[in-house]
Structures are given as structure tokens and as C-alpha cells.
Input
Amino acid sequence: MNTGKVDVLLGLQWGDEGKGKVVDVLTPKYDVVARFQGGPNAGHTLEFEGEKYVLRSIPSGIFQGGKVNIIGNGVVLAPDLFMGEAKDLEKTGHELQSRLHISSKAHLIMPTHRILDRALEAAKGKNKVGTTGKGIGPTYTDKISRNGLRVGDILNNFEQKYAAHKERHLSILKSMGWTDFEGLEKTEKLWMEGVEYLRSFKIVDSEHEINKLLKEGKNILCEGAQGTMLDVDFGSYPFVTSSNTVCAGACTGLGIGPNKVGNVYGIMKAYCTRVGAGPFPTELFDETGKRIRDLGHEYGAVTGRERRCGWVDLVQLRYSIMVNGVTELIMMKSDVLDTFDTIKACVQYELPDGTVTPDFPYNIDNVKPIYKELKGWKTDMTKFTSEDQFPEEFKAYVSFLEAELETPIKIISIGPDRKQTIVRNK
Output
């Protein structure tokens, strides 16, 4: 029997690696693109034909005509934000109703989840996690504590269910002494319009749909949001998101057996960034860090927040490759380093007790990066169309990374546009 295959695409650092562009580049090989976790706090930016799009909840395969796009059960969905995103896409001529399917088991982010997010973050004081305030954490908390409201609920006795959940949230907020409910009524009105809009889409039991598509021989690309180091189990806890961003999350977030997973594409930047609070061993606080940020336009696609920047961290990347079972690497934003005389890469950590390790430890709060320096390539690569054009110094950087990470770099991005992508022949 000709069964299809499932490949997984995910970020290997702290998010913002450029997943949206890569999905868009890879989708011609697939019949289906499915999102398996996360919510509207993660923005995937795609640029092509002179247009720029930011997707928050909708899979990045939506721009390829005729593909089925699935929002899986592991995703948390805000109906009002989803409606805004979908209608913006429809205005640009991208028809969604027939191509976008939504899991009945995906959980809904309620307006009161956003208030809870703000209240819980404020209560942490100086220990803030740095959430986007979109209600993601409280929604996943309700899911795990078996108090969640799901997409399937909008089809049956919804108003009563919604009222009960809202009342519960207000009771929690009251017990916290929270009084700031500004804008709730207006948000709720738009949210309910979003629920009505959601009803116009094909709401499916996505685990059945995906497995049927596989039996029919269809190829599926699973798309993660955020990055491995924000995984609730394997990331830099507690400064993480509330879901499993690693490869295993594709199985639980879509209902796919692990034996169905084929290639695991790991996306990394040629350097490293992080948004929000939390440890970041290779962070640069000097002019070099600022230069990387400016050259790489490192500002959040959804929040506009300034990203923290640093050199590539191979200790962290080896760890991410291991927990995800990465088979191929995709390196983004290589062109950002085009003008640097020297490029650095962290190859080991020095722990607070003076021990040196190549392994990612439980606590990275006070580790010191040990760098290897490489010669910069000092060449504008943004117009290159083949790897044969790469300067020797850049080829040396790529070979060094492949040797250290024991994984081939298959695709190299040299600019934001779809065309600025080099697929290597090796």
C-alpha cells in the first residue's frame, strides 16, 4: 500500500528562526501542511512577489494553491484574532474556506484568558516570564486541568458553556484582587463574531483526517511554532511556552503515530536570538549585538519587541538536534553576517564550578560560553543563486557547523524573499 509520509519542520533555538519562509519554500513537495501547537503569540513572516505576510495561527502552506491546511488539536485558537488574520488574507485574494480545516479538539483562547495572563504575569513581579499577553498560558493551563473550551463546543450548547467558563475565570481574578477589566466587553463582542466566523470553516476530527490522507498516499508537512528552547519540558524552564514545541509535539498535536515521521527539518539562524526574559548564554550586550539586531531586523513579527542577539550556540543546537531527532538542518539569515571580520561560535560551556562541558546542562543561568573564532566572508551573498558562488570562508563556516553538529545543512537562506534560498546538492 502506498502510504504517504509525515515530515516535521521546527525551530531549534528560542523561536524566530524563519519557519514561515521555509514552509513556504518546502510546500510544493507536500499535499498537506498542518500546525501542531502554539497560538497567535508566534508570527511566521513570509515575503514573496513584493508582498509581506505575517501568519499567526494559519499554516504557512496557505499561499500554495490546492494544498490542504490543518490547524491541529495541539493549537490554541483565538476566534477574534483568527478572524482578523483570515479576512486580511482573503482581501489579498487568498481563498481559505475550502482549504483550511480546523480540529474540533483545538482549545479556544477566551477574552478572560488574556486578563488572566496579565494578572498572573503581574503577580510574578520581577520574576516575569515575558509573555505576549495573548492568553496562551492560561488556555493551556485550563486544557491540562481539564477545564478547557474547545472548537467543537461552538457547535453544541455553546453560550451556556462559555458563560460557565467565564464565570470561573472571573472568580479566580476576584480572588487575586484583580480589577482591570478595561475593554472586556468590546473584546468579547469581537470574539463572539469570531466564533460565528469559525463556524463557516470545515471543523474536523483532524486525527482521522490526517491518517486517512496518509493512507491515500498524501505527504504531510507538520509545522511547529516558536522554538525548541521554549518547549515546556526541554526548554529553559520556566522561561518557556506552555506546549511541546519539539518533534514529539507533532504526534500529540495532530494524532500521528511516531512511526509515521520521516524527515525532521531543524531550522537555525547563522547566529542566535531570544525574545523576552530568560537565560541566553551567547547574548551580546555590545555594539556587535546591536549590529546583528539592526542588520537582521530583529524585531518581533507580532509584538514588535526588540530581540536579544548573540553568536550561534552549538551546545544548545546539539541538544535541540538530539531531542528532536533532526535529519537535516536549514540555516537562515546567513547574509546578516556578510560584513563581519570575525564570526564566533560557542562550542562548550564553562559551568560556575569551572567545569567545561559540551552538553546542555539543567541550569544555564550562569554558564560562560567558550568560543571558536572563524574568519568572516566579507561578501554580499544576497544575490547568489547557487552554492558554487559561496566564498571559501563561508563554505568553511558551513563545514565547521556540519562537523560540530553531525548533521547536514541542506538549505541556506541568504535573504527574506522566497527566491533567496539555496538548496544544496550535497
